[in-house]
Design a protein that fits this description.
- By secondary structure, this protein is an alpha/beta fold.
- Helix content is 29%, strand content 17%.
- It has two domains: 72-184 and 266-379, 3-Layer(aba) Sandwich (Alpha/beta knot); 195-252, OB fold (Dihydrolipoamide Acetyltransferase, E2P).
- The strands form three sheets. The chain has a six-stranded parallel sheet. Strands 5-6-7-9-8 form a five-stranded mixed beta barrel.
- It has helices at residues 5-8, 20-55, 92-108, 133-136, 143-156, 162-165, 255-260, 274-279, 323-329, 360-375, and strands at residues 76-82, 113-117, 128-130, 140-142, 195-200, 210-213, 220-222, 231-236, 247-251, 267-271, 289-299, 313-317, 345-348.
- It contains ten helices and 13 strands.
- Residues 1-22, 43-69 are annotated as: Disordered.
- Residues 43-65 have a biased composition (Basic and acidic residues).
- InterPro entries: Alpha/beta_knot_MTases, NA-bd_OB-fold, Put_MeTrfase-C9orf114-like, tRNA_m1G_MTases_N.
- It holds the Pfam family Methyltrn_RNA_3.
- Belongs to the class IV-like SAM-binding methyltransferase superfamily.
Length: 393
């Protein structure tokens, strides 16, 4: 199965020669230093703003219309879920539906990255299966993890591209039961928007150009010679009068969001252990805000609004049936006894719960809703008003 790196590229560990516990220790030190620097910057900014306000009372700020999404800092929001939650489902249909619930939650809360990690370690009895090393960066994974990752990728992919990237597989036997994501990048043929997802086709093209299927009535021509079969993000060009040929420009997968502010889907990553969730981050410098969820954590209501907004890459980690404590215990390379030591914040997002247990798929919805106001600008992206639908005049 081929595809673009945004959704299916391998994530390599750049510090293979170091022990994971040492890497995590360095990450904690780096995060602490980063927090101190940000605090100093805020204090300086407050002082400068105060002086400017005193010396220039007539100074006006930019209006909301002048502040474009492209001028805003690009924030990302990641979640990590254990693949073992599928093993608690009692049938193949329920396994599939559970994975679909995770995909829906990720889309609703505009998650940029979903990490599926193995929380069982060597204690699990389930046999491991082979996975595409080019896609995931690993050779084998527990079947529940591989299936959850595959269904998440399937759901994220626009409908008109699925037949190219997802051939028949028993993990996808019941995906017809799933509710569609109906995400902004799942455009219909009659929808009009500046960007579209596509697959490079093998139709003949001029040198330096390629044909791409972006879900329209015919392929479009893009400005680069690319290998057929890969997934690309295309910026559509306005049609010239008197020509029927549609043209576009291949852009980075993050371009729709940085240029328009609109949510453009999530990436999927597989992690063999809880420690690898942190160590193999695709972002330079890793995650600068990490949150663990547990009924043993601090009450989330004690955090003020916007208190977690000063970050670039946030990560929220969820536990399985036995919680994050069990995931930590099953990771032999993590030399800590308390999972709260792994995170900047260890939170109880549903205090005074009425049920003895909260399922992971429920915890994601509850936690992301509770954290939305705390994360602030991370959640402030575009909406569907920028897409012109076919039935609109």
């Amino acid at each position: 199965m081929t595809g673009r790196s945004r959704t299916m590229g391998p994530v390599t560990n750049t510090k293979k020669n170091k022990d994971e516990s040492e890497i995590l220790k360095q990450l904690r030190i780096k995060r602490k230093k980063l927090k101190q620097e940000k605090l100093l910057e805020r204090l300086k900014k407050t002082k400068i703003d105060s002086e400017n306000n005193e010396s220039a009372p007539d100074k006006t700020n930019k209006t909301e219309e002048e502040i474009t999404p492209a001028s805003k800092k690009l924030h990302t929001l990641s979640i990590a879920v254990p693949g073992s939650i599928l093993d608690n489902a009692q049938s193949q249909e329920l396994r599939t539906y559970l994975a679909g619930q995770i995909a829906r939650a990720a889309c609703v809360f505009e998650i940029d990255e979903v990490i599926v990690y193995d929380d069982l370690g060597d204690t699990g009895s389930e046999e491991k299966v082979q996975v595409d090393e080019e896609v995931y960066g690993i050779k084998t994974a527990r079947r529940c993890c591989a299936q959850l990752a595959r269904i998440l990728q399937y759901q994220e992919c626009p409908q008109y591209l699925r037949k190219y990237f997802f051939p028949f597989h028993h993990d996808l036997n019941y995906v017809g039961l799933l509710n569609p994501l109906d995400a902004p990048h799942h455009l219909r043929q009659t929808d009009e928007f500046a960007f579209r997802e596509g697959i490079v086709t093998n139709l003949p093209s001029k040198p330096g150009q390629s044909s791409v299927n972006v879900g329209l009535y015919k392929d479009i021509t893009v400005d680069k010679a690319l290998t057929p079969g890969i997934r690309v993000t295309v910026k559509m060009q306005p049609n010239n009068k008197g020509t029927k040929k549609i043209r576009g420009t291949v852009v980075a997968p993050t371009a729709p969001r940085t240029e328009t502010g609109i949510y453009w889907g999530y990436n999927v990553r597989l992690a063999l252990t809880l420690g690898n969730v942190f160590c193999q981050s695709p972002y330079p410098g890793g995650y600068d805000l990490t949150i663990g969820t547990s009924d043993k954590g601090r009450n989330v209501d004690e955090l003020p609004a916007q208190s977690l907004s000063d970050c670039s890459h946030a990560l929220v980690v969820f536990g399985g049936l036995s919680g994050l404590e069990a995931a930590l215990e099953n990771d032999e390379k993590l030399m800590v006894d308390d999972p709260s030591f792994l995170f900047d914040h260890y939170l109880n997002t549903c205090p005074n719960q009425g049920s003895r247990t909260i399922r992971t798929e429920e915890a994601i919805l509850i936690s992301m809703a509770a954290l939305r106001s705390k994360l602030g600008t991370i959640s402030e992206q575009g909406n569907f008003t920028k897409i012109k639908h076919g039935n609109e005049k």
